[in-house]
Amino acid sequence: MEEKELIERLKRNDRKAQEEFVRKYSGFLFNVALQILRRKDLAEDVAEDTLLIGLKKIGSFRGKSKLSTWLYRIASNRAKQVILSEMRKDALKEKIADSPDANDFVPSEYKKSGKKEIIWKGMEFLKDSDREIITLVDIQNLKYEEVAEILGVPIGTVRSRISRARERLKKIIEERNFFEGELSNK
Amino acid sequence: MNMKKIEELIEKGVSREEAKKLLTEEEFEEFEKTLEMKSVLSEMRIEPPQDMQKRVLEKIAAEKKRNAFSGGRFKLVFTVALVVVFAGLVIVRGFIPSLSPLAPGGARNRAASPPPNTSSGKKGVSPESQKGLQMFSPVVSDYSVKVIVNSKDAQEKVLSVLKDYCGETASNGICKIDSDKFDKLIEKLKRYGRVEYVEKDMAKSGNKQITVKVEVILQ
Question: Which has fewest Cβ within 10 Å: A12, A13, A168, B180?
C-alpha cells in the first residue's frame, strides 16, 4: 500500500490500514525509542504510545513530511518526556553506567553476540545526537535523504554528523577490543 | 588520513577490493573497521515484542467501540428528548382537548370568560379569591382576539358586530367594551368565524370597561 493511500485509509478508520500501519512502524519506533531510553520496557511503552497517538491524530497529519518523520518526532518527544518525568535523565544514565545490575539493561538479543553487546554499551558513552544519527543511518538503515528530513537538517550535515559519530564510536569500541580477532584474520 | 574519502566510499557501497585500490593501507584499515562496525550495527535492530502490535490494535478497536457507543448513546438521548418535547407540544396544543388552549374550557378560552368582578357576577373569580390571585399572578383584563373568517361577507359581519359592541372604537382594531358584554361579543364573533386566539395581555384588574384588541383575518 502506498503511503498516500495508507494515510487516506487511516483517516477513514480502515482496520486493514491500521494493521499495516502498526506492522510497518512498530519496529522502527521501538528501536528509535530503545536507543534513546536504553531500556526495552520503556521503549515498548513509548512505541505503543506513539502508534496510538499516530492513529488518533492521523486526521491532523497534513502530509507535508513522510509519515515516518512525523512518527519519529512524536516518539522522540515522548521518549524525552519519559526520561524527564519517570526517572530523570542523569539518574538513568548513572544507573546504567554504574549499577552492578547494568547488564539488566542490555537487551537479551545483544547478549548472544559479544560484538553487539560491546556496541550497545559503547553507544552509552556517545552524545545523544551521535546515538540518534547512528540509530537512523546504521541501525534503521535509512537513506541520508530520509534522515535529513527526519532531523530537519541538510544532507551534508547528515554526512558530517554520521562520519563524526562513527569515528567516536569506533574509538570507544576499539578500547574494548571490538576489532580484535575478526580483522586480524583477514 | 582522509576520513571524508573513506565515508564517501562507504556511502557508495564500494567493495573491499575496489577500496583497497583507492585507499592507502592505513585508510583501508579504517575503511574495514567502519564496515565491520556498520555490519554489526545493521544487525542490532530488535524486533518489537509480538504482543505490542496486538495490544495497539486492540486498544484502537476498543476506543472505536467506546466512541461509537457514546456517540450512539448521545443520539439516543437526543432523540428521546426531542420526542418528549414534541409530544409535550402536541399535548398542550390540542391532542388532549381538556388541555388545549382552543378547546372549550381550555386554557386560552378560559381567558375569554368575562373578567372577574363584573356586573354579570356569574363567571370568573370572586373578588376575594381574585385578591389572592393577584398576589401570585397578575389578573388580566385586557384581551387580544383573532377572528378568522372565510369570506368577505363574514368579514363584513364581524366588523358590523364589532361596531355594534364597541362603537367607533372598533375602527382601529381596539375595542373598548363593558366587561359584562365581553362574553356576548365572543359568542357573536364565533358565529361568523373562528375565534382562534384569545389572550390576556396585561394586568388591569377591577375595571368595568376593558380593552380588547381585535384582529380580523380573511382566509
Answer: A12
Tell me the residue range of the domain where A137 lies. Answer: 106-186
**Contact present, A162 and B8 (Cβ < 8 Å):** no
Q: pLDDT, tens digit, for every residue of A37-76?
A: 888 988 999 999 999 999 999 999 988 889 999 999 999 9
Q: What is the largest CA-CA distance in chain A?
A: 57
pLDDT tens track for B9-29: 988 889 999 999 999 999 999
CB B111, CB B101: distance < 8 Å: no
Closest-CA residue of chain A to B38: A138
Q: Are B32 and A140 a contacting pair at CB < 8 A?
A: no
Please report residues of A whose CB lies closer than 8 A to that of B34: 166, 170
Interface test with A, best of B41, B47, B50 (most A CBs within 10 A): B41
**Rounded distance, CA A26 to CA A121, Å?**
24
Tell me whether residues B45 and A170 touch, CB distance under 8 A.
no
Interchain contact, B45 vs A139, CB within 8 Å = yes
Say if residue A88 is in the same domain as residue A19. yes
- At how many degrees (to 10) do helices B25-42 and B3-12 cross? 50
Indicate the pTM of the whole model.
0.58
Question: Which residue among A73, A101, A129 closes a domain?
Answer: A101
Domain count, chain A: 2
- Give B48 to chain A, closest Cα distance, Å: 5
Residues of A in contact with B37 (CB under 8 A): 119, 138, 166, 169-170, 173, 178
Query: A85 and A112, same structural domain?
Result: no
- CATH number for the domain spanning A31: value is 1.10.1740.10
Nearest residue of B to residue A143, measured between CA atoms: B11
- What's the grid cell of residue B181? 358584554
Q: Are residues A56 and A22 part of one domain?
A: yes
User: Is ipTM beyond 0.85?
Assistant: no
Do A84 and A148 lie in one domain? The reply is no
Last residue in a domain, options A65, A83, A101: A101
What gap in Å lies between CA B129 and CA B133, rounded to an integer? 6
